[in-house]
Amino acid sequence: xxxxxxxxxxxxxxxxxxxxxxxxxxxxxxxxxxxxxxxxxxxxxxxxxxxxxxxxxxxxxxxxxxxxxxxxxxxxxxxxxxxxxxxxxxxxxxxxxxxxxxxxxxxxxxxxxxxxxxxxxxxxxxxxxxxxxxxxxxxxxxxxxxxxxxxxxxxxxxxxxxxxxxxxxxxxxxxxxxxxxxxxxxxxxxxxxxxxxxxxxxxxxxxxxxxxxxxxxxxxxxxxxxxxxxxxxxxxxxxxxxxxxxxxxxxxxxxxxxxxxxxxxxxxxxxxxxxxxxxxxxxxxxxxxxxxxxxxxxxxxxxxxxxxxxxxxxxxxxxxxxxxxxxxxxxxxxxxxxxxxxxxxxxxxxxxxxxxxxxxxxxxxxxxxxxxxxxxxxxxxxxxxxxxxxxxxxxxxxxxxxxxxxxxxxxxx
Length: 413
Hints:
It contains 16 helices and twelve strands. By secondary structure, the protein is of the alpha/beta class. This is Thymidine phosphorylase.
């Protein structure tokens, strides 16, 4: 730990940020990525990244959250918080939900929330006065304000292609959990072709490492493994994923992929209940009622209001989420060039959404301001299509450019 402070402290210091420091940090990360980071090294790196001891919030309720390792079109961070908020007062729980910016090919929840006018992620400065009763679910940024060193390393890992090392991943993720603790933290570990961890074995090893780091820092970690073989849902991109999540909570989407997302949310709710010594069946049944009677969607609107979203926008969203979010955006429909069986390249589609459609706004005074838009997939993998069939709708200022490039992200055989 002392060696890390002496050698790497300058590299990851926001106050001493310069080109030389970032270059040195990049080389150090590349070396760590190539040789691999051991458990003992990851434990020390976690503490180094977390910084000073955490500021405890004055919660009068039990606290729980779920944190993912990253996947394409992963929308649980838009679905689970409203559901938890709908049940918060009844079961006396709160959730300090952490959200991060996009990393590599995965889209960040912070970027998805940024398309909501007026929406502000809660500041870490709120923590000492947040009691978990008033506004029981809060979105906090897993960024510079919470973990300055990790925020810098997070960005450099994305720029240098040093993301998918188990030790570096566990250190980064666990530093945030230590900086903002909760009574129960579920790590949603995705594995497969569209995730950072490719195999179940990698995911299991990663989970064990995180559990051990958590244990050494008095943070309870519960790991859940989830396969991420392709796109998790039917849309990719900040605006379209927000619409898809809202339509799932409203019950507008009843297809197989939508039901999988809801089942996943209920699974997390059940695990929270079990770990918090509540009746899992009772809590799950109550969650299903909240989904069916509109409470969960109302809780989404309440979350928007809690975070300062524009009141007129919320009213419009309550009546018609799709029209509110997508109605004024340019759109381009992608048509099949020939008949056959369609297969999408999920990583390529994600890169188009992240880098072309949802790119950061040039000359913006706000670093988290992004261009609105996204991609809705009309035809799913394995669909038999005919020439001229609509395959996808691309929304946003760059929709025409993105639609042209999208043809390279599919195969028709």
